[in-house]
Amino acid sequence: GIVLTLLTCLVFIYFFESVIGIIYALGTVGVATMLVPILTILFSKQRLSDGAMLVVMCCTALASSLWLAEGWMNVEFGWPVYRMGIEPMYIGIAVSVLGLAVLRFSKRKA
Predict the structure, then answer these.
(1) Going by C-beta distance under 8 Å and a sequence separation of 6 or more, which residues neighbour residue 70?
(2) For the chain, how big is the Rg over CA atoms in Å?
(3) Is the CB of residue 71 less than 8 Å from the CB of residue 81?
(4) Counting Cβ atoms within 10 Å, is residue 5 exposed (0-12), middle (13-18) or buried (19+)?
(5) pLDDT for 23-77, tens place per residue?
(6) Taking the CB of residue 57, how many other CB atoms lie within 10 A of it?
(7) How far apart are CA 71 and CA 68, in angstroms?
């Protein structure tokens, strides 16, 4: 655990210029990954399997991270330029909503 944390911190130090960049990246990916699944767990009457929820959350984190990385590769005047001007958090939330909708629809069919 400590070695993994150390390696993660070293990667963050290498790639980010400031603490604000780290907070922005972790907040963007973290909020997108957890917002919709937590709201679904709190307010849904149907229970989705833990494994399915984990898959949706991993896909959401991956989509947000890739969108974020792609934006950082296209920097203009010090600011990332995202495809179609869409922030990574919205991409993650869309992937999360789509994934949970597919799970619900497939659960009703079965």
Answers:
(1) 82, 83
(2) 16
(3) yes
(4) exposed
(5) 999 999 999 999 999 999 899 888 888 898 999 999 999 999 999 999 989 888 8
(6) 21
(7) 5
Measured between alpha carbons, how far is 95 from 71 in angstroms, rounded to an integer? 18
Instruction: Give the tokens for residue 110.
Output: 């079965």
For the whole model, what pTM was predicted? Answer: 0.84
Paired tokens of 65: 């991270």
CA distance 93 to 95: 5
Q: Which two tokens stand for residue 58?
A: 């991993």
In terms of phi and psi (left: phi > 0; alpha: psi -120 to 50; beta: otherwise), the region of 75 is beta
Place of tokens 């179609």: 84
CA angle in degrees (0–180, nearest 5) for 86-42-97: 30
